[in-house]
Amino acid sequence: MADTATAATKSSPATGNQPHYSFFHGVERNFDKAAQFTRFEKGILEQIKACNSVYQVKFPVRIGEKVEVIEAYRVQHSHHKLPCKGGIRYSMDVNQDEVMALASLMTYKCALVNVPFGGAKGGIRINPKNYSAYELEKITRRYTSELVKKNFIGAGIDVPAPDYGTGAREMSWIADTYASLHPGDVNALGCVTGKPVSQGGVRGRTEATGLGVFFGIRELCNVKEEMDRLGLSTGIEGKKVIVQGLGNVGYHAAKFFYNAGALIVGIAEYEGGVYNEKGIDLEKLVEHRKSSGSIHGFAGNQDITNSAAVLEMPCDILIPAALENVVNAGNAARIQAKIIGEGANGPLTPEADEILNAKGVRIVPDMFLNAGGVTVSYFEWLKNLSHVRFGRMDKRFIENVNSQILTSVEGLTGKKVTDRERQFILHGPDEVDLVYSGLEDTMIGSFHEIRESMMNLPGSDMRTAAFVVAINKVGVAYEELGIFP
């Protein structure tokens, strides 16, 4: 079994039209572009940029009649705040470069939305579709035990979460394994987030990232100056939206846009895509895919064989919510969207940024826009440490107070409200209501903080402004720690 700490890779496998593209170096390029607008000296900036700890491990697991050696990673990018925080993905594309890049983005993402975590990320290089549930459980539990050995997991150390290829099931296995190795730790459930509600999870976590994407874009569309510059009307209603990916993030983002009155005109998936300028019925499309196994053949819509071509179709808002580097130097000039919301991590390369910014496209960066997941993970972590669900202490009290107020108003006016109105007025907040409210407030506040930074940096774009805000917050935290005498 190998256990090595290694430096950043210089390249990653070829991706699309970008052979040898390094995701981590792409993040560093964006960092360097923004760093010149901060007050920190070079040494401090180098510390902020560097990954603090890189753990690569290979461990054996018996799969069927043979033993497989599994390659896995956990990267802690920054310790300026503890615990570290970041998801775990199961994919054959997992490599050290990718995990380091995602960990660094987590640091800046947490800083942007004022979540007191350092950035981290993990990954296991497997295709989960090739394993049974029992085999995935063995792999997950063994990976967790390896993290425990090296002190890379714990409620006050490093808190994983779901990512591509993982979900609540895998998080429950991690929590159980950790608890079994730490008997008596009352905060054991806080070692991981994204768990089932019955095991300490929080309501609203599943849709959190997609909802955060919606809140962030909605806030941009509500700024009249931004819409006037792009030649669009204010608000979400009527906007034409293309979403790449019908996974957790893409589906929920599309759902919230659809419910808000936007037209979902295009959906791209790995097998291809569909397009309809008059709008697609999202739920019927999802049902069609479940029954047929493909997004194609959905009556009344245009089938597109090459999913990448869907991204280039006419729309107001493009949301790449699946893969990295899907918009690059090879196709950026053909993108017709006026707003790009990065639902996935790193869907645009730095070269694509330059081309699209020159065209006047407003890019809402991933490090802000998909922060809904980590924001609600923070709420779950707080719930685990406090050992009480949100709303338990005040829901009934608020309902009783509202009832008394309504009774008094009806008595003074002599009028009665309808049953529906009464139900709405008397309703005290459930846990999911509080989670949605906290996420909405976080995304709105962070958006305006980034936009204000952008307005103060002439010629700047939203990604650079977001990096400036994040670097300043992390830099101040390091200064307050007193590690730069």
Task: Describe, in short, the structure shown.
By secondary structure, the protein is of the alpha/beta class. The chain has helices spanning 23-35, 42-49, 96-112, 133-149, 168-181, 208-221, 224-230, 248-259, 282-292, 307-310, 350-358, 366-369, 372-386, 395-413, 419-426, 431-455, 462-481; strands spanning 3-4, 53-63, 66-76, 84-90, 118-124, 158-162, 240-244, 263-269, 272-275, 302-304, 317-320, 339-341, 362-364. Helix 1 (23-35) crosses helix 17, helix 3 packs across helix 17 (462-481) and helix 6 packs across helix 8.
Write up this protein.
There is one protein chain. The protein is an alpha/beta fold and 485 residues long. The chain folds into 2 domains: 3-186, Leucine Dehydrogenase, chain A, domain 1 (Rossmann fold, 3-Layer(aba) Sandwich); 208-369, 3-Layer(aba) Sandwich (Rossmann fold), CATH 3.40.50. 45% of the residues lie in helices and 15% in strands. The protein contains 17 helices and 13 strands. The protein has helices at 23-35, 42-49, 96-112, 133-149, 168-181, 208-221, 224-230, 248-259, 282-292, 307-310, 350-358, 366-369, 372-386, 395-413, 419-426, 431-455, 462-481; strands at 3-4, 53-63, 66-76, 84-90, 118-124, 158-162, 240-244, 263-269, 272-275, 302-304, 317-320, 339-341, 362-364. A 7-stranded mixed sheet has the order 10-9-8-7-11-12-13, sandwiched between helices. Strands 1-2-3-5-4-6 form a 6-stranded mixed sheet.
